[in-house]
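HOLO CASE FILE
Compound: flavin-adenine dinucleotide
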Amino acid sequence: MNNYITVIGGGLAGAEAAYQIAKRGIKVKLYEMKPKKFSPAHTNKNLAEIVCSNSFKSNLLTNACGLLKQELRMLDSLLINIADKTKVPAGQALAVDRDQFAKQVTEQIEKDPNIQIINQEVENIEQLAKDGIVIVATGPLTSESLAKNISNLTGQDKLYFYDAAAPIVTKESIDFDIAFYGDRYSQEKKKEETIEQWQERQKNEEKSYINLPMNKEEYETFWHELVNAQVVELHQFEKKEIFEGCMPIEVMAKRGIDTLRFGPLKPVGFDDPRTGKRPYAVVQLRQDNKQASLYNLVGFQTNLKFGEQKRVFSLIPGLQEADFIKYGVMHRNTYINSTILLDATYNLKQNNNIFFAGQITGVEGYVESISSGLVAGLNAVLKYQSKSPIVFSKYTMIGALAQYISTENKKFQPMNANFGILPDLEIKIKDKKLRYENLAQRALNNITDLLH
Ligand SMILES: Cc1cc2nc3c(=O)[nH]c(=O)nc-3n(C[C@H](O)[C@H](O)[C@H](O)COP(=O)(O)OP(=O)(O)OC[C@H]3O[C@@H](n4cnc5c(N)ncnc54)[C@H](O)[C@@H]3O)c2cc1C
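Model generated. Tokens follow.
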């Protein structure tokens, strides 16, 4: 038996798993194919690279992802800890400076005496698992040769769905005669305020979001160009499904002229400071780096050709001269059928030396991937020490996710943290916020009990 545990993939799940193993005094060999080889979405040589939005979603406990983050904080997650340290203003959400985040995770892993980073693509898992424990955390864009190997190993066809990233623009290229700062709802003029008081309050608001108001005519022109714009041709295998949680904006727009106005462009919670009236639609831009020099277009994940993105998105008032430093992209996303392959510790049933972690298991999202890395890392250690596994309670978000992906389900789709996967409370509470507060408290009590 090897005197170390192997982790394949130094993304969000792999970096978290490596940390959890190393902090328990066990050696780790962490294989990461970058910088020798990059997936179509990765561009940075650091570990824990964030490929799309810089948001780790809400910090509120009445939000499922907020609860999951709080559980991870209690369980000493390295990545959530660094996300907290590298956060940028984003209202109630935890958004990070992506470069600082990846840099600090990499520094922490590199200086850990128990972790050896090997920059090499792995093509065969069984070879590494012959004499030791292996965690596979190669993500939704697992390299082709390894994906084939996983397919052979599990006897399953790979599953694919679309995933897409939103474009990023520089702040200095945005027209601030049109754009205004502010969070949804805090931006609305209060009845008792004069226009001057309201404008003064806005000046002091946190500058986490930039808003671009549109009138009816501007919106309709934009919508028309968007639904008729040219998209990148997808491969046949990529055409299987569109994942509702990450739908390209042009696909959403094609569902009807007002769909975007009820979705990412909803004007609710804003008044246009120029008119004092609610706009017809609003495009929001979220701060993307600590210096607040870059902003991403919220909800604008897209598969439009790059030239078309420039042409169509520049029609948005305020973005006429926008400098797009990154265009939106769309990619294959690979995950295994965990519902029959894994148990609730992310251990492969047919070969107990192998664990999977991250998006490849069918958990969906940054925080969810980190949570599975923590569970797999912890349980790989217990296996290494020939101790019993820890199955997190179904009443916790971290446990409910693990149980969801490892429970038989013929319609398995990647799953975000959500309150629907937690068991009901014993008493019925109608008020949603109060119900979520109670579910969150029950989950956190459970983690507290586990830690004592
Ligand atoms: C285009 C795109 C956009 C996304 N946008 C979002 C978003 O906005 N918000 C969100 O919450 N989630 C998003 N996701 C989903 C998902 O949460 C992230 O992909 C997340 O990074 C998954 O973490 P992971 O650790 O599983 O994989 P990754 O973070 O991708 O890490 C996998 C690592 O494994 C390495 N690797 C791959 N193959 C091999 C190999 N054979 N040998 C060695 N190393 C290998 C890769 O280089 C990479 O560093 C997106 C996914 C994609 C593909």
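CASE NOTES: The longest strand covers residues 281-287. The chain has 14 helices and 16 strands.
CLOSED: yes
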